[in-house]
Amino acid sequence: MRLTATETTAAAKTVPDVARTRSSAQLEQERRQTIERIIALESAGVKPVPGARADVHARALALFAGEPSVAAVADDVGAELARLFQHRDVLDEAIALARRREEELRIEFERREMARLQPEITASIRKRALLALALVRANQEFEIFRRRFGDFGLASAGFRLGGTGAELGNEIYRCVEELARRGILTPKEAELP
């Protein structure tokens, strides 16, 4: 049984103690060990003996929440192989839960970091836009000389550094207009040359 994204998210949020939960790396290591044991038993010719199956989803939630793995070895190697297959399924579910939770925690952390750094981010956005506008103004001034004297003797005349603003779809103008709409730049700062 595979969980939907909604079920996985809801299950991950019901974990009472995040510090106790197991990481996907820990669960993947246990899965590798389980697979190695399965391969060893199958290589020896052992066939799984069907038996009672535990609720994979409930065991996955418990395993993700930090409960220890059920490590009891069955009396019969065929029963053990069947139990290992089931344990692999439980680990797969637990790994999916752990990965979902790790991603949620990463996103939550990034949101907090962005909120904490918002003043610096806004300052950087403003500085970038204002410097781009200053470059357009400088290019417009330089263009007057380039038109008068051509490229001959004008250092850097062969380089297009952001354009003069006369180009269709100029990104600098579009950016400045957007920042003015958002209130990051004042109307005076957003005046286009």
Q: Overview of this structure, please?
A:
With 193 residues, the protein is an all-alpha fold. The chain has 2 domains: 5-106, no CATH class; 118-181. Helices cover 63% and strands 0% of the residues. The protein is built from 6 helices and no strands. The chain has helices spanning 5-13, 24-43, 56-64, 77-116, 118-149, 171-181. The N and C termini lie far apart (63 Å).
Briefly, what is this?
The protein folds into 2 domains: 5-106, no CATH class; 118-181. It has 6 helices and no strands. It has helices spanning 5-13, 24-43, 56-64, 77-116, 118-149, 171-181.
Strand % is under 5%
Task: Give the low-pLDDT segments.
Answer: 11-16
Largest sheet: none
What number is the mean pLDDT? 82
Helix content: 55-70%
Secondary-structure-based class equals: mainly alpha
Measured between the Cα atoms of the first and last residue, the distance is 63 Å
Number of domains: 2
Cα radius of gyration in angstroms: 31 Å
User: Care to count the β-strands?
Assistant: 0
Morphology call: elongated
